[in-house]
Design goal:
By secondary structure, the protein is α/β, with parallel strands linked by helices. It folds into two domains: 17-295, Dihydropteroate synthase-like (TIM Barrel, Alpha-Beta Barrel); 303-416, Sulfite Reductase Hemoprotein, domain 1. 45% of the residues lie in helices and 18% in strands. The strands form four sheets. It has an eight-stranded parallel beta barrel with strand order 3-4-5-6-7-8-9-11, surrounded by five helices. Helix 1 packs across helix 2 (74-89), helix 3 runs parallel beside helix 5 (132-147) and helix 11 packs parallel to helix 13 (398-419).
Length: 421
């Protein structure tokens, strides 16, 4: 046996400037000592103010702490204040981020109400103009951020990287005695574009505590390599996310693989999981995935977690699968109410197990757990609360009875926490 204990846990968070994003009485801090934030983006036509406000509300209720909206046309810019008004009337105070490309300098100039209604701007330095116009148009957007006291995310994307910068760096690389591989030059171009654009914003008068950086790519290893270097070379707050992560399990797995490595190393202050939703599917899925990445890594808690076994030949019945799904859905549906009424409930663990092998043990380790009978086992389901067996359920109403036990436990345990506060 080793004389040294085995230690777990993630690295200390990288130090960065704290960026405050506000709307009304709502404050979301990114970076500094703040927790890693989860954000999302609408896919509605922003000119449709009602439809956009409805989707923003859905994303905010799912847990998106900021919501980004496209501002690409005069019609969209004109609609932004109406979107904000609709949200305020619904009591949804989530900060809005305006996503600007190509004509952002004109839209911010011509639509001051839009510039004021947004809580943060996103600028891509690779597409704010060409040649001599680039510096002028970029400066106009930074000056708007200063005028309206708004933070900015400078978001570099390898699909729209500054081609002049990339061409210059390729020429410089060709002149090296030992040229870098093209991939390394691309990495360096992304990092230089982000940091150089941020430093230019500082020269124009924007505070370092108003700047967030991102360098988005679509490859897992590429993202890890770029952010590891970016984190070493600046102290700006960093936004993480694969661009065009993909659909379904591919997008979820790729995003989880990339972000988990960086978060484990203490890199990253806010995340977005850029999933392509299934046709007609909810946009909120990417918020749930982002929350679950942070929660399973022990970085934050958002909703009670359900521990469930995968099933095997001992569990030919689907009862435990159905109950696990029902309980997970029930817990997530209750969170908008429970979050306010029962502080701390988001840290609760619930075990729904399928047979006697690991069922009682896992159930004892959870706050509350149930061990359902496997194939050929006694048709009884012991329930454990805080490690102690409290009762055994039988019959056709096991799911309903267990759900009620969970609800009563939440009110009893976490209601007391609120009463004593």
């Amino acid at each position: 046996m080793s004389n040294e204990p085995i230690l777990g846990g993630h690295a200390l968070r990288r130090k960065s400037h704290a960026v405050h994003v506000r709307w009304g009485g709502q404050l979301v801090t990114i970076g500094g000592d703040a927790p890693v934030r989860v954000q999302s983006m609408t896919n509605t036509d922003t000119a449709d103010a009602i439809g956009t406000a409805i989707q923003i509300k859905e994303l905010a209720q799912a847990g998106s702490e900021l919501v980004r909206i496209t501002v690409n046309t005069p019609e969209a810019a004109a609609a932004v204040p109406h979107v904000r008004d609709q949200l305020d009337r619904m009591g949804v105070m989530v900060p809005l981020v305006g996503d600007f490309h190509y004509n952002g300098h004109l839209l911010l100039r011509d639509h001051p109400a839009c510039a004021e209604a947004l809580s943060k701007y996103r600028i891509n330095p690779g597409n704010v103009g060409q040649g001599a116009k680039r510096d002028t148009q970029y400066a106009q957007m930074i000056e708007a951020a200063i005028k309206y006291d708004k933070p900015v995310r400078i978001g570099v994307n390898w699909g729209s990287l500054d081609q002049d910068l990339l061409a210059r760096m390729m020429d410089e690389n060709a002149a090296r005695s030992v040229p870098w591989e093209a991939q390394s030059v691309m990495y360096e171009a992304l990092i230089q574009s982000a940091i150089g654009s941020a430093e230019r914003a500082v020269e124009l008068g924007l505070g370092r505590d108003k700047i967030i950086l991102s360098c988005k790519v679509s490859g897992v290893q590429d993202l890890i390599a770029v952010y590891q270097q970016l984190a070493k070379r600046c102290d700006f707050a960093l936004h993480l996310g694969l661009t065009e992560a993909g659909m379904g399990s591919k997008g979820i797995v790729a995003s989880t693989a990339a972000l988990s490595v960086l978060l484990q190393q203490g890199i990253g202050d806010t995340i977005r999981i850029s999933l392509t939703p299934e046709p007609g599917g909810p946009r909120t899925g990417e918020v749930v995935v982002g929350q679950e990445i942070l929660q399973t890594m022990g970085l934050r808690s958002f909703t009670p977690m359900v521990i469930a076994c995968p099933g095997c030949g001992r569990t030919t019945s689907t009862l435990f699968q159905e109950l696990a799904s029902e309980i997970q859905g029930y817990l997530r549906a209750q969170m908008p109410v429970w979050r306010e009424a029962y502080p701390g409930v988001e840290t609760m663990n619930v075990a729904v197990m399928g047979c006697i092998v690991n069922g009682p043990g896992e159930s004892k380790h959870a706050n509350i757990g149930i061990s359902l009978p496997g194939s050929g086992e006694n048709p009884a389901a012991p329930v454990f609360i805080d490690g102690e067996k409290v009762k055994t359920l039988r019959g056709e109403r096991i799911a309903e009875e267990f759900q009620q036990i969970v609800s009563d436990y939440v009110a009893r345990k976490y209601g007391k926490a609120q009463a004593s506060a």
